[in-house]
Amino acid sequence: MADHDTVALDQAFEAEAGKAIPLSPLITRVTAPNPGPFTFKGTNTYLVGREILAVIDPGPDDEDHLKALLQAIAGRPVSHIAVTHTHRDHSPLAARLAQETGATVAGCAPHHSARPLHPGEVNPFGASNDMDYQPNRTLKEGEDISGDGWTLETVETPGHTANHLVFRLAEENALFSGDHVMGWNTTVIGPPDGNMRAYLASLDKLLHRDEACYWPGHGGPVLKPKPYVAAIIKHRRQREAMILADLETHGPQRIKDMVPRVYPGLDEKLLGAAALSTFAHLEALIADGRATADGPATRDTVYRLAVS
Fold first, then answer.
1. What percent of the chain has pLDDT over 90?
2. What are the two backbone dihedrals, phi and then psi, of residue 195, each rounded to the nearest 5 degrees?
3. Predicted pLDDT of residue 2
4. What is the model's pLDDT at position 307?
5. Average pLDDT over residues 93-111
6. Separation CA 175–CA 98 (nearest Å)
7. CA distance 167 to 181
8. Phi-psi region of 279 (alpha: psi -120 to 50; beta: other; left: phi over 0)
9. Contact indicator for 195, 164 with CB cutoff of 8 Å
């Protein structure tokens, strides 16, 4: 969305799908051929290591991307395939790549939503989820996988999805941030799979870490992570304040009435995404006791300020 008044986005990233790009002594990036409005130039798959490799986020189940990864691997052993979350642009190729390489699939848990569906509610991201993903090992906070000269530490970052993880490369003090933090755009938080309250808590967790660089699932690196994460938090809090102010000014209302005022001048094509983000904020505000809903919180519910 084009309303990031506090977040300096970097959309200068150029990627040639299938080309292996060395990024550091231990990291090579191969971008999948799946550009789009939610994937930018495509999903970034990262190869970590020199002689024995890990592959992070193998990407969509795409024949050309599989061939490109195998070419970049160049016959070297792959000990682990690490997965940040179970969206179809990140995890589906894990099974085929594991079959080709004999690697252990280690990473996030299988897909699960942040909360159960309300009666009659349809999950707008249902088709985006990889329901076939089954890891050999589910990683938890602080657990490591390691190989020849590399160590990946697991950091749990729910919010974008309930099972989202990021991985710290200890040897380079770098973080593979998946879709949790990206430089090209802010992250979509869509209930019921996503949860704004969890997302903000996960951002706060990263704000208190000291990695020097983030390598995200889409787009180029985030080279100054702390101020960038702080700006994302500020942006989300500003949006939250605008929602509360709108409820105070206009009284009880539905999301569809609120969005044009909370997102003034937004392209009509983005109103659906804005409504979903507003819904995520309202769920968080209800959990914090600052808003209420007339019945189960859905995109069609009437919302109002909580009575203090």
1. 88
2. -145, 120
3. 37
4. 85
5. 98
6. 23
7. 12
8. alpha
9. no
